[in-house]
């Protein structure tokens, strides 16, 4: 009896297993269960790959819809795909595949029966990549951007400090646009999105200029030049204009070469005499050193820190010995540091035959500056004679003119307004090499005596 029961149980189990395997075979285990839809699309009986293609087709249709962005009288259109809209296809496929699966065989069978009676709808899972949306909005932002205009400081002809008002700019309100965009993309028929601007304030405003504390002249110096030397006078004007209007922050170092740039014909300079190896020779940009020299003296009188300065090889005529500053582009430079607690403004001016440099700042910090020129050594030139057989014997002519050499100190004494000495310094040292006189003495035949004219 027991043996018979065991046999019956084995046969029953085998039959049920076979039946379930047959059902599985009929229903399909490598496709989505019948009764699963997305909208009107039947996904039942489709493989994952087939279902993925169907869903992707529907996604593409939705992504091709256009969204209109408007700002004032302008508009832009982008596809929903360009703005980062899409579906989470993997999640949707996973949901569709999971219907009618899982649990005991009996439970799966019941779940699949219910799908025949009541089909399941795959839920739409949307997503928006705001990184892509921002990228597209940046093209709009670039098109609508209105650059603000900074306030400017200048000095008029009467040496009054003047403010030129700036203007407020504007830009796309990017964050507001993104906040509107995301919900709009999730609608089937997206309505036009109204964009907005936000103001952009100038980086430099009235308060910025007030804090610079540029109020009036704190030092000035002038030199004279020959306006008849047209090319040299023109070079002076070009270089002076390059420095005019320069602003220096506290602690900032001014470089003449960096501000003025190369002295070339391409930069507008002309040929005029320049000092090279103790000689005046033609060169492009002759006269520029008068600009650096005039500025140097104005800087000295303002009590500013001299960082780099070199004298010419010979003294110049437009300033006392030891008060010149030579420059060569790519070589010698004139540099000074703004050692004040406020900004500085440099103004150059040409009035007739005078070049004037004025330094503007805050007179409240002003000091009294006294400059003392000390020639510590005068070096006399030697006299050299050379024989010249082309000159008559005994005749003597100047072949090269000489000049004295000098060693010089410039002492600067800085005093407060009450006359108390705050600082006494040797601010610069100069050395001018002497140039020897060279005479040619004739060694040739004596000139024939003049024959007196006959008397009539």
TrEMBL record:
Keyword Signal: yes
Domain G5 intervals: 364-445
Species of origin: Carboxydocella sporoproducens DSM 16521
Keywords in alphabetical order: Signal
Protein name per its UniProtKB record: Vancomycin resistance protein YoaR, contains peptidoglycan-binding and VanW domains
Source domain of life: Bacteria
Keyword NADP: no
SMART domains, alphabetized: G5 (SM01208)
Name of one Pfam family that matches: PG_binding_4
